[in-house]
Design goal:
The structure holds three protein chains of three kinds. By secondary structure, chain A is mainly α. Chain A has eleven helices and four strands; from the N terminus they run ααααβββααααβααα. Chain A has a single domain, classed as ABC transporter involved in vitamin B12 uptake, BtuC (Orthogonal Bundle), CATH 1.10.3470. In chain A, the strands form two sheets. Chain A has a two-stranded antiparallel ribbon with strand order 1-4. In chain A, β2 and β3 form a beta hairpin. The termini of chain A are far apart. Chain B is an alpha/beta fold. Chain B folds into two domains: 196 residues, Response regulator (Rossmann fold), CATH 3.40.50.2300; 130 residues, Rossmann fold, CATH 3.40.50. Chain C has 14 helices and five strands. In chain C, α3 packs antiparallel against α4 and α11 packs across α12. By secondary structure, chain C is mainly α. Chain C has a single domain, classed as ABC transporter involved in vitamin B12 uptake, BtuC, CATH 1.10.3470. The chains are: A mainly alpha, B alpha/beta, C mainly alpha. Chains in contact: A-B, A-C, B-C. At the A-B interface, α1, β1, α9 and α10 of A face α3, β7, α8 and α9 of B.
Chain lengths: 293, 397, 355
Amino acid sequence: MTFISYLINGISLGSVYAIIALGYTMVYGIAKMLNFAHGDIIMVGGFAVFLSVNSLGLPPLVGVLIAVIVCTALGVTIERVAYRSLRGASPLAVLITAIGVSYLLQNLALLLFGANTKSFSSVVTVPAIKLAEGQLTISGETIVTILSCVVIMIGLTTFIRKTKAGQAMLAVSEDRGAATLMGINVNGTIALTFAIGSALAAVAGVLLCSAYPSLTPYTGAMPGIKAFVAAVFGGIGSIPGAMIGGILLGIIENLSKAYISSQMADAIVFGVLIIVLLVRPTGILGKKIHEKV
Amino acid sequence: MKKFLSLAMAAMMAVSMTACGSSSAPKDASSDAADKTSTEASSDATFKIGGIGPITGGAAVYGLGVMNGAQLAVDEINAAGGINGYQVEFNFQDDEHDAEKSVNAYNALKDWGMQALMGTVTSTPCIAVADKTAADNMFQITPSGSAVPCIANDNAFRVCFSDPDQGAASAKYIGENKLATKVAVIYDSSDVYSSGIYEKFASEAANQGIEIVAAEAFTADSKTDFSVQLQKAKSAGAEMVFLPIYYTEASLILAQAATLDFAPTFFGCDGLDGILNVEKFDTSLAEGVMLLTPFAADSQDELTQKFVSAYKTAYNETPNQFAADAYDAIYAIKAAMEDGAVTPDMSVSDICDAMKASMVKISVDGLTGLGMTWNESGEPSKQPKAVKIVNGAYTAM
Amino acid sequence: MDNKKMKKTTKSSIITYAMVIAVYIIVEIMLKTGSMSSLMQGLLVPICVYIILAVSLNLTVGILGELSLGHAGFMCVGAFSGAFFTKVMAEIIPNVGVRLFFAILVGAAVAGLFGIIIGIPVLRLKGDYLAIVTLAFGEIIKNIVNVLYVGKDSVGLHLSTKDAVALKLAEGGEVIINGAQGITGTPHASTFTLGIILILVTLFIIMNLVNSRTGRAIMAIRDNLIAAESVGINITQYKLLAFAISAALAGVAGVLYAHNLSTLTALPKNFGYNMSIMILVFVVLGGIGNIKGSIISAVILTLLPELLRGLNNYRMLIYAIVLIAMMIFNSSPKAIELRMRLVEKFCIRKKKGAA
């Protein structure tokens, strides 16, 4: 019974990683850049909801909407100001700029909101499910997060397969030069990718803070890195891979804490990642999926 | 060559930005103090007290508390006529909770002309800086550097309790008051403070008839999900969970324990203080939590109330234990300076020698303890207060 | 043709050495005349550490062409093994200088060994996957160091991963590595002169490697793996060689770092991925594969946050903005074009003025 309960906790943690990883993998797949600032956009989303719901007293759904708008605008602005001028430069230059943006967002948030921890009251109203006479609890946040993951995963896959904009994204990710020759607006497509990625970050931020209700300017950094690991785990660029990678990562993290050593959990998680990559050098779903986004 | 040129240009840009920035920057403590000096004191000489701590990065919350608390004390002292008739200038430098940056901050303060150091806030940087202050014979008092080697030298003192003291005091308190016999510990194995307390607690627990049924760690890299640690404590039948950690993580632990239907007594140290002031925190989760802390922001004594209201007016936040420690540290510096009759024209080393001799003689009525005294080793002597959270407020036990 | 090229590289190497030595002389004169602030004096050794790190990472990133995000991990290994050696050997080798010399060798050897152990699996991967695996190794190293307890007593060394009590030290025993509390009380032995010597050694090793047959083989692998393989270059061996040398030099930097501060802990700030990324920033800003550039950017970016101290709370914000601006200025195709035009204009005007 305790094993199942560890497993459920692992899935809850993993679902949060998964939803962050979805945004990561989306931006990576199309723009071919590791957006290290993704975790910090999540933090901004968290603060947007915190301010609108807890301070202004708006209803939670409006708060989420505001967060999505704020993050989308932020993502597009960052892309326009920082990343677009580096198009054609070495990928490493873009990576470093993304790190600069990450520092910028963290320090801006520190100045605007202060360093004190804010306790985030959950926007999820779904009740928890209790199983086996209350010994097992699946929290409402977990249910909502997993459902959102699935919805987003299906939505994104459909969007990319069925719509013109999605096809354009696919084309840009395959070959940017050829896409330009085919009359695809590459800049517009990448901006759209950032818009969607950042909107996903906002949703992830809300769910992260609902599940783990503490908010500081550095809230996004570590989950961002973990989600990046999850995205690589599942095969970076693959949307279902990100979800699987995230959930597996959560489960591995919690089970190693439970059965091996709580001090060494990080080392074990990263160790498993290394082994997986050595066996399957492009992640779990990296090669099988051809429609890389 | 092109690269070289571009780098040179980048460097110039950086330097010119620095130049623009620094001309407008020191508008805080120094200029305020300078204004007052010209009107109030006849002499231009001032005491220069430096402070070091993290005001950016993940530990910023502690450094900012110290910076604000100390600034408040300095402003009060200046308004009341300064120390020995001289105004005080206070300059606080960021160390990002990194030993190397902390030494840089110390050197920057030395260039500024610092005469006594109030810092550093966190333990690891403090040990590195203590080494430098000893070499320069600079007086140092740390508000919150709780690791043992922070004050290994005779020029260094501290306001907070040391980690082993807190661990031992917690175990004794639990044992003597028979609060629990089966205790689980959740601690941060990557943190000096937390692992320091845990270690001593574990060795003292054996003497107190306390059985540690689960000792679960987390690290700075995975401090969001505590369900496994809590589940293990629950399965091990712990009656009490000892949390020698800071309140940010503790607030998450309490929330997650509630969803697990796990309701042991939670017992913490001074790091837990501040949990009630986490913005929008559901204080009912902290109901029944016990902690040993020298400071409580809603304590009813006049000094604390005055401090808390002044702090809230100035910074729009409730002060935490770090702010209180810093406030006391500044007053300890004042007391030692007055007792030693130091003047700003003395050399740093002479000031330090005078203050060192005075520190063991003075007694300070501070926020974190009445009649605080110090011994030769630099440890403070004061009573930890055990408090319990009842109806969302601290109640003495 | 070949002869000319050789001369060019030799000249470039000499310029680099001369640059370092010239800076050393200037700094020494400033130190002697007392015209250097304490802040700058304190920064001298850290700058040497970062230069060695940047130059050694440039070997992996620039010459070998593989993105490594775990460089701080090797630095951590070097720092802890070096500091451990100094502490353990305190009685056997009483002279601090001699101990530090051996500590540097130990640090380099252990870090190099880790480079080989980690390099064997890692170098099979490519691109971003390689980057993430090096990041993972860096984090693993940091995590393990944080739970490592090593003590010494009359019997010998004791090791535990639980806590200091579990070491079961005999009377008079000393805990050397105390888990998260790390190693305290390492002697202050790093000096600027030593730092400069180590920089020169690093430069010597790397520039000779680059200009040797081995170096050309490594660069051939970077430029075209298949072509390199087809002419009979042993890919794995050369990759591993470059990676291990890079790791060993990072270990040297770590030893220097450890002996500059009296406390050594593996925090995310100093040995986590953040540090690895910071070193990478030095390399990228200085120009990938450009050794001189690495040195200059390591100096500038280490000084920058310190020079911004006057800004207090806004310090790191400005740093971030400057970093982004520098990257765009340095790497953006449009900015490069603009810069070229400006340089052209400037040069033409100068010529006209001369005429």
